[in-house]
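Two quick folds needed for the group meeting slides. Do the first one here.
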Amino acid sequence: MAATLPATGSAAAADPQRLTVDLAASEGPVMLGANGALYGLSDDGVPSDATLAPLKVTSVSQKPEGGAQHPNGDALTVSKSFFRNGGGEINVMMQDIYAKWPYEDLGIDDYLPKVDKIAKEVAADPNSDRFVYIPFNEPDQIWYKLGVADQTQYEANRDRFFKDWKTVYQRIRAIDPDARIAGPNEAGYHTRLLRDFLAFAKRENVLPQVMTWHELGSGSLRDFQAHYDDYRSLERAAGIAPLKINIDEYANRRDLSVPGQLVQWVSMFERNKVYANAAYWDAAGNLSGHVVRSNIPNGGWWFFRWYAGLTGDTVKVTPPRADTIDTLQGLASLDTSRRQAQVLLGGSDGDSDVVVENVSRSVFGRTVTATVAEAAWSGYEGQHAAPRVLARTKVKVADDGTVTVPLRGLHKMSAYRIVLTPGGTGSPSPASAPWSASYEAEDAAITDGKVYTQGTVDNANGYAASGTKDVGSLNQATSKVAFTVTVPKDGTYDLAILYGNQSGRPAAQQLSVDGGAPVTVTYPSTENWTYRAKKDVGVRLSAGTHTLTLAKGDAEVTLDRVDLTARTAVPSARYEATLADISGMPSYDYSSAGVGTGSLVLRSGDKAVFDVYAPRDGYFTVVPQTTAPVRLALHGETVTASPGKPLRLYLVAGNNRVALTARHAAVRSLDVSGNGSTTGTLSYEAASATLAGGAELVDSPYASAGSYIGSLGNSPAGTAGFTVDAPRSGRYVLVVHYAHNDRRDNGHAYNTDIMSRTADITVGDAAPVTATFKNTWSTDDYWTLGVPVDLKKGSNTVTFGNASAWAPNIDRIELGRVVG
């Protein structure tokens, strides 16, 4: 078990690193500027509302409507989902109107009509004030070559760029007088250019409203602070008031999805109060590698969820080594109104003492409850359940106003959250994290495979791998990897396998324990063999040492690491109300330590929203720990819940936003347990549908009943209709099992230009609802999408179609009443 917090008074480990948090040194209000993404959204609904809303994203960067650079991610199109989920502003990457990369240089006369079109469309949008124009992208490398060493050539290139900047700036403003314009948007930080640019832009009255540049090297973790300080000094020297800064591309491929890497980037941006958007190295629509499929959190998503949960002011954090690549870094906040302090940290293996200074007795009292949780790396496409609480203990505030939280056995790729709340009376229930251990594939016994090194500082745009190594080339009939594991007692263990599969279809390996009869493990497709996903299976083991062997099956699979975790009971999670999103003016009650971090007191007009994870679609037991009846809202259904009374609710795979209101109730937590039961759900295979207009039943060994509905849509007549017999009227979740692999290669070597499909879903005579289905990496991999629908008791028709384009292939559908 990592990151344990020993009982008060126990001996500290020798020479742990020290990270200091000074609650008296405010850095200003929490800004949440560093949670953006370039092409973070691909379509309306990708990523899902449930994964987008909790992150409180302040900015994203997208292409202009109809831009040819990528097949999706159009700014006006995705703005619908972005704004309805509380998004801040959208940067319009105007040169992404061009098809080629680097952009074809056809001259300013070719570009200006495109500028006109973009500006007219944005200006006409009802939310035009929430868009920012970025006229040029990486002009230091593209079109203008502003990074040349020769000064004479630089000045000639610079003057051409400045002339074009002024022309385009004035053209935008002529169409959209209130336009906010950002730039110059270099690929890297250049003092020479920015000094000249600020002088020119001020003189010619074409100063951008937002200053942008990119930080895309592993060295940025070392160099950004110097870049920022230098830029602010250039502003002062030029007599320019501080401009808003957006680092609109940041991080390397090895950083994306990795909580321990992300905390290093985010801490330096939030400390300096700049906005920042993670880079687009792979596929659009997953918030730069932090949403699995459309609706499933990975470890990176949970880190950003924690970041979004910071409130009040950020405060000074002193790491062991500032501005140093791949070291322990952190950020922290203090909210005196909520009486909470939070610390997010990570980026280093080993032990650390987190020393929190100036813990005010007027805010916290004489004791605090310290709660520690871990967001682990689960891969780019690996699901991550709600972060597990590793430790919770009551700590006395020292006479000098400090609280020390010792963390032991930190994992470099993980991020950790410490929450400090008033201790209250009594003692909090200790955390009960199950036994767990990890085993690297490169350290196992390898037969006919090869160890590869990935994602190091020297190869920063390589993909992340646990321990920077994985095992590939497992493509021989005799290929296998044998892990030697030791478990403490007899029982069932959850085996999580971090893998890659680019075979273009589901791939299999044979899992055996101590040479026994093998069982087949099937792996869904991934983007490529290093774009890590996670497969969970169960194994029964006796106490002691065993050999777990994964041998080649019908295709090649890459292995990175396996994790073994003791299965102690029915899976469960506790979502503490004092850490929920709120609206209204609820109060916080820490008078009794009880089981967690206190209670949230709701009155009329108040609301708490919980982000509840489900490993699969199905029914779960949800218990609100409250002092009075409350109302729960989920999937458009509202139900009254009594204190401590279990509810059977249908959750979709991934994140579910559960809203809770009350007339007057103290809410301690929302407790969720279960495996996703399908008892009581309705299920209909493809063969049961009535097909029309060219839609056809296609045989497939990968479909659940041997066939799927293909050639669906592309005309008003192309439909598939299911007759659904509902046992009672009400709100249901329609879960569609689907597949498709639409792509359009736009020429970027490092982007996988996947596309989504849509289907119009009509229930009875209700208005159709359009649902967006993300690419599933292959036509043989079936994912699920949950769509809330209303059914009447008895027979209902559920019809799928798309009058203008192909709908996805449909394997089967399921329906579960929201309240089971």
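Then this one, please, same format:
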Amino acid sequence: MCPPSTPPGPAAGTDAVRREARQKVTGQARYAAEHTPPGCLHAAPVPATVARGRVTAVHAGEILARPGVHAVLSHENAPRLKDADDPTLSLLQDGLVPHRGWYVALVVADTPEDARAAADDLRVDYAPEEHDAGPAEDHPRLYTPEEANGGHPAVRERGDFDAAFATSAVRVDATYTMTALHNHPMEPHASTAWWTDGDLTVHDSSQGSTTVRGVLARLFDLSERRITVDSVHVGGGFGSKGTPRPQVVLAAMAALHTGRPVKLALPRPHLAAVVGHRAPTVQRVRIGADAHGVIQALAHEVTTQTSTVKEFVEQAAVPARTMYTSPHSRTSHRVVALDVPTPSWMRAPGEASGMYALESAMDELAVATGLDPVELRLRNEPETEPDSGRPFSSRNLAACLREGARRFGWEDRDPRPGVRRSGGRLTGTGVAAATYPYLLSPSTATAHAAPDGTYVIRLNATDIGTGARTVLAQIAADALHAPLDAVRVELGSSALPDAPLAGGSSGTSSWGWAVHRACTALVERLGALTGPPPPEGVTARGDTSEEAKKESPYARHAFGAHFAEVEVDTVTGEVRVSRLLGVFAAGRILNPRTARSQFIGGMTMGIGMALTEGSTLDREFGGFVERDLASYHVPVSADVPSLEAHWLDEEDPHLNPMGSKGIGEIGIVGTAAALANAVHHAAGVRLRDLPLTPDRLLPHLPD
């Protein structure tokens, strides 16, 4: 079996339709909570109602007497788990309560309604203890960690920042704050689990079932061969499903205890406390520049919080190590452990929050120097990555800024703030840059050629709505020199070859390289055949473990530029986005249709970050107040204009065989700053606390 003599045109780079689109719109795509094995029971968790303390009694007898209730699990009778690498999964193992919302019990019943009602009525007694919910700023227990999230050094210094800043001709010193933000995917965090002869099967809403399998194996002291985790269709996660969450552990525990399948979907009001969130940050940015706007000194100092359960430090100062020329630099993180829920990943962690502060400060520097904000950024383009000194594999930020300015009509902008007014509405425009690192993880895949001329690609990638099935098929078709419709992709099960989770904008690069390698090996094997393939077909395997371990001599990042226009209502304080445009340099775009969706999705989340999304930590009670979509305001259709996402044709030979970078997260990174800068340009006032809600804006607006 040889490749066709006239290969089909390239599949990668074409506008291919999502392969699962029809399944999703017709309801055939089944999610974790839609699997109901025979005899399935339903579980409902019980969150702690104190901010810190110990459970002294669980009145399970009252609940067990109810018809339809099968079990009440607590630290008194739950299956014992081995030590967890992630202590947020050490559930029902003792009576300690580290924060409000921590799960202290689980009710299992015949129906979800019975389980929820019983969980609501379960009486739990506590011995409360004095708690500390912050604030983090100036807290006496603030400390400097060794690392921030992602393994980045918590502190980096170059040159003599203090001396250079003190002698700079122009200086900006500003502090920016953000409240906590929550992921809130539409699909709940859900799992369906059952045991058969000591083997565990789970359907889990997860961004990586290989990781889930490994964690369950450790917790339940099982061989990974005895566990199967399926995540075939996942309805978004944005980081909150990046690692195992309580539902999968609790469902497996309940199934083990009852001997029957158990389904558990976490209620939305619980999510703020148990599936992670973007931590609130206080970010001080100081920039010193010469009279021409060239940066001499840059400091980005971040204060944030974590829980007493687990250290998680939002790496918000890290982007400042990449973005602009800065011979004298200080970037640092400080954190305090509080009696609050544990923060975790949320789309573009570190970059999203850090670039809001940095790009807002750059706008303030543009005002202070009298330079156009685009020109200021162009004047501070570094020749190499400032902190590492490594050359960039490609860096087309300047091209993104110029192309975005052209498309947006930036040159027609009146730089004076607060002058464009029509009745009670003020109009302004703003710009911000964006960056996100290129990440690569080890992955495996197999490619199989059937005698009928079709191919099957198998790997445990996870499609969280990004179009992974489609893009991986395109990569395979090109490597196989085969028509796209001859390639089928199987993914979303730990029974398939191991692959990393969908996160860090690394999925396509990591999975795609393994797929490309498997397909290339398959073509070689087929070419060596002297006759037709055997009836069982031919299979080849790809493994990129060695490549992923190698440290690149290049600094590898995607870049982008965001341009925004807003209208500010001087009567109500409401901000309306009238235009939002992004231009990105993210390597080769493998599928324009799904890429545009990714960019626009990120930009929409950036609108929420800037204008609507905010979470209040009740320091008296230790929990988040906004716990549903009625009080936590994500952008809806009425908030989102006709967004524009464009990209450059960027060639970067230092990435992977596809030449692709990640695109899932860079869309959010610069959006909030561009909008905040546009609000300043519209109203002439600079507010540094997100979100820019009407109550915050209105006192500062002119009549």
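Slide caption for protein two: Residues 603 and 668 are 5 Å apart (CA to CA).
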